[in-house]
């Protein structure tokens, strides 16, 4: 699965939103990770922890008040050159998006322009971003091929307005559109949220097949741990804007070493579990404008000591496996964290 060099190497990335003339909130901080070609990485964590912000920031798609004061994201282009996404100018960004990395936005319901037919969305994207000049026939051929791949009826979909499609159809059409220019990296923000269970299943299977077929590297944002367990090779847990643990899916689900990750997993109902065994994490995540001192999780943590209140722990490597496969955690007491094996359904 992995090759020698990462396709994306993020270091100390910080993303903030300007909230007033002299005020801002930092929504993602000190983000570092490596992603290798073909890997599928899940970003998990509670609502508001900064998942969407990070996904958008990586493609420089932040809303107007979003800022990236620090950090770099080195991306290896199709031609082998390495660029820092954070340093691309507008023209370079236009060439980068869609052809090198594409995003499927959170909320399929609103991601299409409601007054434009799906066919015109494909035409605009392919015309604006393709290196080659494409004829109408080329565009129609490509759109048809892509919609077939996501098991939609191309003629019907291309001639429809977004509101004429179901949520699941829209999500499939969005995925097809994101793949139009064969990007190396696909960022999907909550690809199955707000869809019914059977439709979710269909999308998951579809993504699995598309990955086999197109071979893209994937970052997907979700608060659904089951989805992460099923689709990810790598999982990063976020809490209050920071990645607090990263590992292979097995590390995270069977041997989590951050108390927050362990708490999240213990709050999920296993397939054959007893609901009485479920536990929640006491308290709620802090507001970004009033983060606790030290480790931001310390007020909710059973393991917290005085040390945890004095400094923010750095992301330490617990198991070094190289090639972007290591297990890292941001906790001073990770060796004490005991996990009851909830994902094993044996609790
Ligand atoms: N345009 C904005 N201006 C100011 N703050 C923002 C803006 N967008 C997001 N935020 C803040 O940044 C933080 C992270 O938000 P973000 O949407 O990235 O979280 P998330 O993890 O994707 O949540 P969810 O699971 O609900 O989608 C939140 O506290 C949010 O209030
Ligand atoms: Mg979000």
From TrEMBL:
- Cellular compartment(s): Cell membrane
Q: How does it sit in the membrane?
A: Peripheral membrane protein
Superkingdom as given in the UniProt entry = Bacteria
* Keyword terms, alphabetized: ATP-binding, Cell inner membrane, Cell membrane, Membrane, Nucleotide-binding, Translocase, Transport
Keyword Mitochondrion part of the UniProt annotation: no
* Main localization of the protein described in the UniProt heading: membrane
| Record CDD domains | ABC_NikE_OppD_transporters (cd03257)
Report the residue ranges that make up the ABC transporter domain in this protein.
Answer: 10-265
Q: What does the record give under GO molecular function? A: ATP binding
Look up keyword Cytoplasm and say if it applies: no
Family affiliation: Belongs to the ABC transporter superfamily.
NCBIfam families, per this entry? oligo_HPY
Q: What is this protein called?
A: ABC transporter ATP-binding protein
Q: What is the lineage of its organism?
A: Bacteria, Bacillati, Actinomycetota, Actinomycetes, Glycomycetales
């Amino acid at each position: 699965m992995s090759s020698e060099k990462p396709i994306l190497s993020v270091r100390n990335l910080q993303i903030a939103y300007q909230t007033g003339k002299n005020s801002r909130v930092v929504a993602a901080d000190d983000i570092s990770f490596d992603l290798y070609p073909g890997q599928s990485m899940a970003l998990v964590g509670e609502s508001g922890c900064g998942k969407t912000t990070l996904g958008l920031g990586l493609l420089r798609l932040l809303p107007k008040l979003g800022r990236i004061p620090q950090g770099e994201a080195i991306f290896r282009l199709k031609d082998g050159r390495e660029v820092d996404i954070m340093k691309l100018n507008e023209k370079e960004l236009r060439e980068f998006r869609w052809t090198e990395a594409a995003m499927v936005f959170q909320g399929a319901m609103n991601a299409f322009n409601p007054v434009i037919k799906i066919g015109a969305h494909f035409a605009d994207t392919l015309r604006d971003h393709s290196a080659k000049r494409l004829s109408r026939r080329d565009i129609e051929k490509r759109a048809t091929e892509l919609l077939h791949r996501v098991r939609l009826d191309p003629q019907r979909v291309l001639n429809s307005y977004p509101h004429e499609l179901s949520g699941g159809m829209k999500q499939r059409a969005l995925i097809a559109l994101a793949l139009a220019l064969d990007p190396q990296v696909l960022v999907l923000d909550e690809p199955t949220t707000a869809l019914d269970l059977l439709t979710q299943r269909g999308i998951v299977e579809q993504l699995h097949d598309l990955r086999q077929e197109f071979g893209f590297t994937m970052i997907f944002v979700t608060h659904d741990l089951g989805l992460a367990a099923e689709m990810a090779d790598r999982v990063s847990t976020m809490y209050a804007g920071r990645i607090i643990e990263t590992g292979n899916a097995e590390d995270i689900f069977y041997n989590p070493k951050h108390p927050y990750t362990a708490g999240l997993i213990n709050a999920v109902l296993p397939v054959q579990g007893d609901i009485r065994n479920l536990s929640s994490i006491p308290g709620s995540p802090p507001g970004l404008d009033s983060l606790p001192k030290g480790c931001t999780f310390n007020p909710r943590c059973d393991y917290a000591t005085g040390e945890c209140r004095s400094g923010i722990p750095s992301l330490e490597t617990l198991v070094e496996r190289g090639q972007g496969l290591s297990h890292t955690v941001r906790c001073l007491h990770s060796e004490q964290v005991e996990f009851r094996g909830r994902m094993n359904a044996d609790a």
